[in-house]
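Allow me, if you will, to draw on your knowledge of protein folds for a short while. I have a record of one protein: its chain in single-letter code and its fold written as discrete structure tokens. Kindly check, if you would, that the fold set down in the tokens agrees with what the sequence suggests. Thank you for your consideration; the sequence and its tokens are set out here:
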Amino acid sequence: MMHAPAPTTVNATAPLLTLSGISKSFPGVRALNDVALSLYPGQVTALIGENGAGKSTLVKIMTGIYQPDAGRIAIDGRPVELASAHAAFENGITAIHQETVLFDDLSVAENIFLGHAPRSRLGLIDWRTMRANAREVLETMRAGHIDADARLRDLGIANKHLVAVARAMSIDAQIVIMDEPTAALSAKEIEELFLLIEFLKEEGKAILFISHKFDEIYRIADRYTVFRDGEMVGEGRLTDTAEGEIVRLMVGRSVEHIFPERTPKIGAPLLAVSGLSHPTEFEDISFELKRGEILGFYGLVGAGRSEIMQAIAGMTRTSGGSIALDGETLAPKSAAEAIASGIVYVPEERGRQGVVIGLPIFQNVSLPSLSKTSKNGVLRLAEEFALARTYTERLDLRAASLSQDVGTLSGGNQQKVVIAKWLATKPRVIILDEPTKGIDIGSKAAVHGFMAELVAEGLSVIMVSSELPEILGMSDRIVVMREGRMVNIYDNDGLDAETLVRAAAGIVA
């Protein structure tokens, strides 16, 4: 058990790590544009921004996974090039992610000293010294309750975080990145983590803390930097800045002219979800989706939105509640059953869950509709092409031909293939999970335009999105989620972004 250290004082000192003019682009997407970040010894800097603001890209640059297109990185005023993850490691930078990257089948000591284990004069690993050193590191950081010989798989998530920090301490890392470290922790474990962060501050470490939870940010951080749309839009000391100002920095942009004009023709309820619950992901979810409606779901990371959609689509089992489509109760035990009922799900991770890399476009589109393009068990190629052409043309797919490997397409065009695939099944409800994540502006416009066409034709759409402009620009009503529960359902009439962010983050007005 850790004990609270004495309160720390924030010294006005020079930054330990400085990033300036950092830019990074991917095909069709500008992830970062001329951003800056400074981390100070003995202080926590919170990096704040919506999903897609560029936070993860910056972390990958800081840890040597990505190389910036432009910009400068300096440690203690000395320019450095983080050409690889090993180079970042050698420069004293370590990251502790929401899902810690450790090895379950190795012991705690082996995880702490992996890659830099003490060795004997013969060059062999000195196991006794390694275990002793591991115990010393754990004791130093007030985590002596963890057995250095225990298998990592036998530890809880909170103690795995402690092992990750112990690894950072063992290499004397001076810069510690914590990316959503509390997402899977209980309240008690979060308190333990905060005490550990205070200890790291006492040790003079410069800490980058990434979180969507404002109560945590104001509890533990000294400074803040806000990213929006891949740009740095504000920084300062938290003691000088109100929550409302940071929220305005996060969402401060106009959305009126970006999205298609439409006059909703909303009918009677089509899908009714009542008291839907899952043992670990969400609880007591109840809402209605009407004919011709776009129902938006907004929330921060870990809110449980995708998990709800996967349950409705028959991909995961629930522990309670009911789903009804047009008055008929459904209990889909598989995605196939949901599809047969008229409910389809377009996943967020299109590369892993949406398209089949290595297959041509036309086969990706026709895959769920083989009964329509085959006769007596024999596929009819002409009908596969015709089906694919019908739906990809409506989505303005940009490809050399329908025989092109879907893996060679841009992210935006892959997303169009996924949507075309499910529309070809002629569903009644289509669930779009982050439909424009990571795609360029032109492709976003095409997807938004097509969504407007679909609901005009009577299809009902659920759209999960972390992009506030998209939620406000496309939704008729908006469900806000927080930590597996529904916070509120808003009619999108005069609704503003700040209201949604406050609700999702649990900030009291």
